[in-house]
Design a protein that fits this description.
It contains 19 helices and 17 strands. It is of the alpha/beta class and about 525 residues long. Helix 1 packs antiparallel against helix 3 and helix 9 crosses helix 10. The longest helix is centred in the N-terminal third of the chain and has 66 residues. The chain is globular and about 95 Å long.
Length: about 525
């Protein structure tokens, strides 16, 4: 603003000076040319008789106006130039910022793209990358899906931080041995090889990987954690110029993995007979179950639960059995999967509930009944249970114990909690079965109002010589005592195991060391 004022004053002053000099010079010339003495009177006289001087008199005014206008225009021009200069600087600066932002976006996009193809925890490529990188044009491929056995136990006992460390070390061990490793999800990994391999070579490879993982422990501070794995393998060979199908190969490898886990095998190699045999096996058991229900050949057996202090049989667990066409007793491991698959499971649960309640009245002992999340979700099963509880003697409902599978509860917490509230309202009790393979947060046990923890057989069976199992069980027992929950050791099969169980302060024992499951007549 100050510069603008200075410019205007300068132009006006120059105009006035030049405008004033011009008439003064003209007047001086007139006086000389007419040889007149300079006086005010002569100046007025000269002015009256000379029209040119009238025009010259106005010159300062016009020149001043012109100078003023020129000054304004100059200021406008200066302002526009200045604004253009500022705009140009801003554009240059904006261009720099935009370029920097674009570079930042490119880098971020690279990071996001990398993250989309890699597992955040372990850093190895993920399933998306596995599918993307798979070379469909190869002549051969061997896909292998690997699952860490009982990984939930590590999270349960040692916490997620240790569990995450194990997963990273697991992946590192595979990579360091030159395997192309991918993390599919959770505790499942995959490796791929494009070498042609026969059955013998695959067997050697599978055993090498199994030993690589299981023989050397994973070291966590002062603890050595041993892992075992299941593997599902799919062989792919190019046929008639047809590209290899990664989706089909991965599906087959996963199917083989499930088969290996069900059969407790180190590995299973996928083949068409696997599906046919599985389907035929399952369908045959469906027919046997239907026939057994019709002919009243579904049975309940009972296994004693012994008080470790008194060695008295305080409780029994209800276990389902089936009698086949020749009178042999069939384990539920053979038919329960088919019962679930074909919608027959709820019929079996209803039968067990009815028989177990009848046994309570007969033996006057606490009787436990296994209840799954499928049972809790089944409306007809829950209606039957409520009906039975409503009509059961009020002074006997406290002898009913419902065992919930620990591995199912964490994912269905609200449903399990509602079920517990229901049966607790009748005075019944709750036990968590197979503890050590789910419920990774101990706080859930407290919030679910549990009466008994049944420690998983995998932790008990070798507890007399397995230091890791002993350490884990000590933690469970300590937690249970602090929360006023009773503990039951499953799979007590020898005196050595029983002695260790008693030494650790576990309240009850169940297993073949005391008694195998028997019909009710054995306890009358």
């Amino acid at each position: 603003m100050e510069k603008k004022k200075k410019f205007l004053l300068t132009y006006i002053l120059v105009g006035i000076i030049f405008g004033a000099l011009f008439p003064i010079s003209a007047y001086f010339y007139e006086f000389i040319s007419h040889k007149m003495n300079f006086s005010i009177a002569n100046l007025i006289e000269l002015h009256r008789h000379n029209n040119l001087l009238y025009m010259i008199d106005t010159a300062p005014i016009f020149l001043g106006i012109f100078s003023f206008i020129a000054g304004i225009n100059h200021c406008k021009t200066f302002k526009i130039n200045k604004e253009l200069e500022i705009t140009r600087d801003d554009l240059i600066e904006s261009e720099k910022k935009l370029k920097k932002a674009l570079e930042s976006v490119k880098e971020k996009n690279k990071e996001l793209y990398f993250e989309s193809l890699h597992d955040k925890l372990t850093g190895v490529a993920n399933e998306k990358s596995f599918i993307k990188n798979f070379s469909e044009t190869q002549e051969h491929a061997v896909l292998m899906c690997i699952n860490i056995c009982h990984f939930r136990e590590i999270n349960t006992i040692f916490g997620y931080e240790i569990g995450d460390y194990i997963l990273k070390e697991f992946a590192t061990r595979l990579i360091e041995n030159n395997f192309e490793c991918y993390r599919i999800h959770g505790d499942e990994f995959a490796i791929v090889s494009y070498e042609k391999a026969n059955y013998i070579e695959i067997d050697i490879l599978a055993n090498y990987i199994f030993n690589l993982i299981s023989e050397e422990p994973f070291k966590i501070k002062d603890e050595n954690i041993f892992l075992t794995i299941h593997m599902g393998i799919s062989i792919m060979n190019k046929e008639n110029d047809k590209l290899l199908d990664i989706t089909e190969g991965l599906y087959n490898a996963n199917y083989a993995l499930k088969y290996a886990k069900d059969k407790n095998l180190q590995y299973a190699l996928y083949n068409n007979e696997m599906i046919n045999n599985s389907y035929n096996y399952s369908y045959e058991w469906k027919k046997k179950i239907i026939l057994a229900i019709k002919d009243d050949k579904i049975m309940t057996f009972y296994q004693p639960i012994i008080n470790n202090m008194t060695l008295e049989m305080d409780k029994l667990e209800t276990l389902i059995r089936m009698k086949d066409e020749v009178g042999n007793i069939v384990s539920p491991f053979k038919f329960l999967t088919s019962a679930k698959k074909y919608g027959l499971y709820n019929h079996l649960t209803k039968f067990v509930i009815t028989e177990a309640l009848r046994t309570i009245l007969t033996l006057n002992k606490e009787i436990s009944i296994n209840i799954s999340i499928d049972d809790i979700r089944n409306i007809s099963t829950m209606k039957l249970l409520e009906h039975e509880l409503n009509n059961f003697p009020k002074d006997k409902t406290g002898k009913i114990v419902f065992e919930l599978l620990e591995s199912e509860g964490i994912e269905n917490y609200d449903e399990v909690r509602d079920f517990i509230s229901l049966v607790k309202s009748y005075g019944s009790k709750i036990a968590i079965d197979d503890f050590g393979s789910g419920y990774s947060n101990f706080s859930h046990i407290i919030n679910l109002d549990i009466d008994f923890i049944k420690i998983d057989a995998s932790l008990i069976k070798n507890i007399d010589k397995d230091r890791n199992s002993e350490f884990i069980v000590k933690l469970i027992v300590d937690f249970a005592k602090k929360t006023d929950i009773k503990t039951i050791a499953e799979f007590v099969h020898s005196k050595e195991v029983y002695d260790k169980v008693k030494e650790l302060g576990i309240d009850y024992s169940q297993g073949y060391y005391f008694s195998e499951p028997k019909e009710i007549s054995a306890f009358l």
